[in-house]
Structure formats: C-alpha cells, structure tokens
Fold:
Amino acid sequence: MSPSRRSVALLGATGSIGVQTLDVLRQERERFELVAIAGGEQLSELAAIAAEFNVKYVGVKSEHHRSVLADLLSPDVAIVVGDEGLMSLAQSADVVVNAVMGFAGLPVTLGALAAGKRLALANKESLIAAAPLVAMVRNTPGAELLPIDSEHCAIHQCLASSPDLAGHPDVKRILLTASGGPFRGWSADQLKGATKEDALRHPTWSMGPKITIDSSTLMNKGLEVLEASALFGIDVERVEVVVHPQSIVHSMVEYVDGSVLAQLSRPDMRLPIAYCLGLPERLTHPYGQLDFSTALDLTFEPPDDAAFPALALAYEAARVAGAAPAWLSAANEVAVAAFLADEIQWCDIVAIVASTMDHYVADPLNSLASLYENDDAARRWARASLKK
Ligand code: NAD
Ligand code: MG
Structure:
C-alpha cells in the first residue's frame, strides 16, 4: 500500500453513485482523502458531506447556490461555481470520480484527463458525446480512464493485461450483459400502458432516476455499447448485448478460440467504485461476494429488438459516428426529463430520440465548440418533437 493517502475529488457527491462512493471512502480513510465535492441541487447534503470529510473545495451550479451554501459551510472551505468550477475541481486530486448525471459531467471528464489524473468514470454520457475529444486528452501523460459502469468494469477486469483492445488482437467480441429492466418479456401492446411507477421499479439495481428510466427502455444498454466502443477502442459490430436477468455476470469477453471470460459478483456498485479507486490493489471489502452454498441460476437470452428499438438506434449512431452519439444522448436526456415530469408517455421516449436523429447533419466533431453546438441543436429538435 502506498504510504501517502491518495486525494479524491467526488463530483456528483449527492447522487446514487456519489453516496455509494462515500460509503467506500468511509471504510478506507487511511488510503484516501476526500478533498473536493460537487453537486447540483442538494445543498444541505453537500454541506453535511463537506463537514464529515473536512473537504477543501465544494462545487455548485450557480452564484445563487454559492450564496445559499456559504451560510452552511465552514469559512475555510472554498466554493467554486459552474463548468469552470467543475473543471478546476477535476484537476484538484489524484483520483477524480465523475458521478455527475448527464452531459453536465463533460467538464469533469475532459478536465481530469487533460490534467493527467485518474478518472473513475460513472458518467457515461460525457464519454459518449465527446468520444473524439476524449480520445485526444486521454493521451496526456498520467491520464488514466477507468470505468465504474459495472459492465465496463467487468470487461476491464477480463482484459486485465491490457485494457486497450489494440493490445488484444485475440479478442473476438465483447458480450455486454443487460438485466432487461422492469419490462423484460412485455409485449409491444403491454408497453403502451407502461407507467412511470412501473419504469422506476428496476428488478436488480437501485440507481438515480435518469439511468433507471434508461434501463427500462434499454437506451442505457445502447449508451453502454457506445461507451464500450469508446473505452476499449472496439468497433460496435464486435459488441453484442446479452440479456442476463440476475445481474450476476457483469459482462464477458470472448476470445478467438471460443473461450469466454466473465466477471461475477452480486450487483453492488461499491465493487466497481472500489476497484477504480484502489487499482492496482484490490480493496478488502467483499462488497459483491457471492454465496455458492445455495443454488445460483444464471440465464442468458437475446434482447427483444422489436420491443426495445433504442438498441438499434444506438448501433446506428455508432455507425454514423461524428456527433451522432452526442445527438442520441442529448435527445434522450430531454425525453427522459419530460417523461419524469409526466409530460410524455413511456413509448414516446425512444420515439422522440428517433425523430430527433432524423435532423442530424453530419459533423466530424473536432472541437469543443462544435460539441456544444451539436448538443444544443439536438436538444432543440427533441423539445420541438415533444410538443407534437
Ligand atoms: P443521480 O441522479 O442519483 O445523481 C447525479 C448527481 O449529479 C447528483 O449528485 C447531482 O446533484 C449531480 N449533478 C447534476 N447536475 C450537476 C451539475 N450541473 N453540477 C454538479 N453536479 C450535478 O445519478 P446516478 O444514478 O448517481 O448516476 C450518475 C452517473 O453515473 C450517470 O451518468 C449514470 O448513467 C452513471 N451510472 C450510475 C449507476 C448507478 O448505479 N446509479 C450505474 C452506472 C452508471
Ligand atoms: Mg451499467
């Protein structure tokens, strides 16, 4: 174990991944020092975390949030604001956990990698939207991109010797497992009556609202196909989705000789979080330990592409490349927010994403300015199609 503690910045500290990361850090105070946190709306929670861990910096969204939070914090804690604030916090620690929800996490991803930090990435949306830009900053000396997303963390573990597939000509394909979500087995007719309550009832994972809805449409798995492609440098044609309802096998890598390696554990996000914090060491808390003394059923089946068209949309966005994945993810954020606000039906979510993609104009995405323009354009088209 390293003699000095690693400093950690946890951005998105009040959400589902944030709270589980804090749980790991509480068990590992002699290894890690939490120095910076950030969050969206939950200011009293942020203040409580700042006091408990004695953090030096807190990031908030706006000047208004800063003035409210200032009254809740000890005066020696520095408050930073907005995207610039997130970017500076992403440069403030040895390990940066990006647990922000959605495209808002972009400054964290780019900031941490450009500063040569270890980025423990839960925020898949930033990587998917900015893949060509992330590829550039990933070459910064010291920069390291480790996936917290359980499927990608499983693949990382299966590829242990070299996480870049360029070093693995013997890998035939990646098999991404999916729980199938709450609507596995539902017919297209039944899906027309799907309610918000149904969609928020995930069978195996407890997560934030946006990703829970994404899991119900299988858009989460579509986003994860794009995420795998960007992380491991693999063409999406070599990434296949397999439905595995028990969420025990977190993903698999198939080699050219037919051998398949898998990573198994109970579904507990603290395991991938601890893996990304501790690498090359493994932390000693057995978060995902399985009990083999009782019968364990592991089943696998193909996804129902007709009932869940989000998967095909994601593969198509990957083939088009450029800014198409950014459009897909932005349109999906708008549609899911509208669904959570009771403005549209469940079936409308993916329909809105599909109709937004019809307006995409090819763009190679070679600057940050063009990424923001594309994100903005996709959101405008998605909002316009909400009204129809
Ligand atoms: P969540 O909604 O529970 O939490 C999101 C966090 O982001 C909150 O702390 C919120 O305050 C913060 N946030 C939002 N906007 C912000 C802004 N502009 N500035 C600073 N902070 C902001 O979401 P979650 O479920 O924890 O998911 C976070 C990310 O991790 C998502 O990208 C999700 O896809 C990914 N992920 C989550 C899980 C899971 O189990 N929850 C698993 C895999 C991947
Ligand atoms: Mg996942």
